[in-house]
Amino acid sequence: MTISLSTVHVIVDDPDAALAFYRDTLGLTVTNEVPYEGFKWITLVTESQPEVAIVLSQPHAGRSKEDGDALAAMLAKGELGTINFRTDDLDTTFEKVAASPGVEVLEEPTKQFWGARDFAVRDLSGNTIRIEQA
User: Model-level pTM?
Assistant: First the structure.
């Protein structure tokens, strides 16, 4: 039996603003955009792992008002988890990401006690993004 990762869902307040960050700043490629009942899902991939989809969606997209409200509250607190990426040039990536409008730097490039060298930011919706040196 083989199991592999296929899709990661990232909840965002504003898909268009998030798209500017994930596509223009991080360099991901849009593979699909699906509007539905006033919301939209945007699917992106990285060049090095095109088989793993990253789907941006809003808290209320495809959910009940109650569930959407709960997700929106967690998103506003920055409590929906961390998205981890790798890069072959951490310092250049940090400079580009840190200069992106609306991004909050949580930690500059640092050698971590677990061995990785990485940095951490919050995207425009408050999601924590960690990027480590490959």
Answer: 0.89
